[in-house]
Design a protein that fits this description.
The chain is α+β, with helices and mostly antiparallel strands. The protein has 15 helices and 13 strands. A 5-stranded mixed beta sheet has the order 2-1-5-3-4. The protein has a 5-stranded antiparallel beta sheet with strand order 9-10-13-11-12. It has a 3-stranded parallel beta sheet with strand order 6-8-7, covered by helices on one side. It binds FE2/S2 (inorganic) cluster.
C-alpha cells in the first residue's frame, strides 16, 4: 500500500520511497518547496518547522501541531496533511497573515529562520484555537511567545519577533510594536491598521484525504484489514500485542540492538543521530497507547502519548497536583519536539541509552509505575527505579514493550511536590 499524504492541499502518493526518509529531505530534494530550511538537523533550531494535521473520523475533528521536519519521517505522515510556509502564502499574499505580520513588524533582513518562525507562530495560533475559546479573535501573547521557543534567530534579534507575537495578543501595548510598515509614523499607531488574522483563512484539511480516511476506517471496521503502508522497512503495528510480536521477531533476527527501532515521533534522532536502523516499527497509530485517563488515584496514560498532550491533560484535569509536573515538562526541548515526541520514548531513552531525561527524573521522584508487555499475554508492573535499573525482571524479558505509565497524583495533592531545573529555560 502506497504512502499517502497531503502537502499544502496537494495529494502526494509514493509507492517507491524510503519511509524512513525525513520530511525535510523529501521537501528540499524531491519538491520545489525550498522555504523549509535545514539548520541543525537535530530539532534544536526550528528552521525546519512545518505544521502536521491529523483528522479523526470518529469525532470529525482536526488536530494541527507544529513539528520539526528534520526529525519527522515520511512513514509517520501517512494519511496526514502537511502545511509548509508556502501553504501559508508569502509576505505579500498571506491570507493567514503570519508571514505578512512577521515581515511587516520585525522587518527581518534575512529570511533563513523566518519561515520556521512563521510556522511555529501559526502552530501556536492553532494550538490556542484548540485549547481555549479565543476572546474575539485575540490571543494570549505569552503563549504565542512560547510557541516560538526552540526557534533560533541569529540576525534580527528576538525583540521584534516577540512584538509580532504581541500583535496577535489581547493586551497589546501599541508602544511595543514601534515602527512597522503598516504605520508610516508612530502617530499612526492604531491596531486596526495591522493586518487582521482570521482563522477562517487558514489552510483547511483537504477533503480528498478526509474521504480517504473515512473509507479506510470503514474498511477496517468491516473487514479487519489494515489501512497502513506496507513496506519491508516500515511496519505499522495495530495493537500492543502486534507490536510486541514484531519486536520479538525482528530482534531475534538482528545482529545488534540498534537495528530495530520502535518509532512514534522519531525525536530521539535529534540526540542519537546517524544510527542506521534496518526496520522501523511504527506504534504511533495504536489506539490503546494513546489513552489518557484520570483515575480516582491519579492519571494513567499510554506510552505513545505526546509530551504536549500530557501537559495539556495535567493542566486541564490536575491543576493542583499536576501543575508542578506540567511546568517542568514545558522546559523539555521545544514545543515542536514535545508535540511529536512521546513520553514513553523519552523514558526508554533514559533506560536504554542513559539519556539525561528530565521526565524520568521527575517521574522517579513522583513514584510513577510502568506497565510493560513482556510476552503476548503477560504484563509486568515496575517502579521507575526497577525500570531504569533494568532490573525487576527486565533482564529476564529481553523483549519488552512499554505500554502504560501511571502517576499517583492524588497522593501528592496535599503535599508539596516541587522540581527544579539546574539550567532554566523561559
Ligand atoms: Fe534545526 Fe530541524 S533543522 S530543528
Amino acid at each position: 500500500m502506497a504512502l499517502l499524504f497531503a502537502l499544502n492541499g496537494r495529494k502526494i502518493e509514493l509507492s517507491d520511497v524510503d519511509p524512513s526518509m525525513t520530511l525535510l529531505e523529501f521537501l528540499r530534494c524531491h519538491t520545489d518547496l525550498k522555504g523549509t530550511k535545514l539548520g541543525c538537523g537535530e530539532g534544536g533550531c526550528g528552521a525546519c518547522v512545518v505544521v502536521a494535521s491529523r483528522y479523526d473520523a470518529s469525532t470529525d475533528s482536526v488536530e494541527d501541531v507544529s513539528i520539526n521536519s528534520c526529525l519527522a519521517l515520511l512513514g509517520s505522515l501517512h494519511l496526514r496533511a502537511v502545511t509548509t510556509i508556502e501553504g501559508l502564502g508569502s509576505s505579500k499574499n498571506s491570507a493567514p497573515r503570519c508571514p505578512a505580520k512577521v515581515s511587516g513588524i520585525s522587518r527581518v533582513p534575512v529570511w533563513f529562520c523566518t519561515p520556521g518562525m512563521c510556522m511555529s507562530l501559526y502552530g501556536g495560533l492553532k494550538n490556542q484555537q484548540r485549547r481555549v475559546s479565543v476572546d474575539g479573535g485575540k490571543y494570549e501573547s505569552g503563549a504565542l511567545e512560547q510557541s516560538i521557543q526552540g526557534s533560533l534567530c541569529r540576525c534580527t534579534g528576538y525583540r521584534p519577533i516577540v512584538d509580532v507575537c504581541k500583535s496577535f495578543g489581547s493586551s497589546v501595548d501599541v508602544e511595543d510594536l514601534g515602527l512597522n510598515i503598516f504605520w508610516k509614523d508612530r502617530k499612526d499607531g492604531r491596531m486596526e491598521l495591522l493586518p487582521c488574522y482570521d482563522p477562517g483563512d487558514d489552510p483547511k484539511f483537504p477533503e480528498f484525504l478526509k474521504q480517504e480516511i473515512i473509507q479506510r476506517q470503514s474498511a477496517i471496521d468491516s473487514t479487519g484489514t489494515s489501512a497502513m503502508i506496507e513496506h519491508e522497512k516500515w511496519i505499522c503495528a495495530t495493537s500492543s500485542g502486534h507490536a510486541f510480536g514484531l519486536l520479538k521477531h525482528f530482534q531475534t533476527r538482528s545482529k545488534t540492538s540498534k537495528e530495530v527501532k520502535i518509532v512514534v515521533g522519531n525525536t530521539s534522532a535529534g540526540v542519537y543521530r546517524d544510527w542506521d536502523h534496518s526496520v522501523f516499527i511504527d506504534i504511533s497509530r495504536i489506539p490503546e497507547l494513546h489513552v489518557v485517563e484520570a483515575r480516582s488515584d491519579g492519571i494513567e496514560f499510554g506510552a505513545a502519548v505526546s509530551i504536549a498532550k500530557l501537559i495539556d491533560f495535567l493542566d486541564e484535569n490536575f491543576k493542583k497536583a499536576g501543575s508542578g509536573i506540567a511546568k517542568h515538562l514545558r522546559k523539555v526541548a521545544s514545543p515542536h519536539v514535545r508535540n511529536a515526541g512521546s513520553v514513553g520514548g523519552n523514558l526508554i531513552m533514559a533506560q536504554k541509552f542513559g539519556f539525561d531525561s528530565d521526565i524520568a527524573t521527575v517521574f522517579l521522584g513522583f513514584g510513577a509505575t510502568l506497565k510493560l508487555l513482556v510476552s503476548p499475554d503477560k504484563q509486568v508492573i515496575q517502579s521507575m527505579e526497577e525500570f531504569l535499573e533494568g532490573g525487576g525482571g527486565v533482564d529476564d524479558y529481553p523483549s519488552s514493550l512499554l505500554t502504560m505509565i501511571f502517576l499517583p497524583l492524588r497522593s501528592h495533592e496535599a503535599a508539596e511536590f516541587k522540581t527544579y531545573r539546574a539550567s532554566p529555560r523561559l
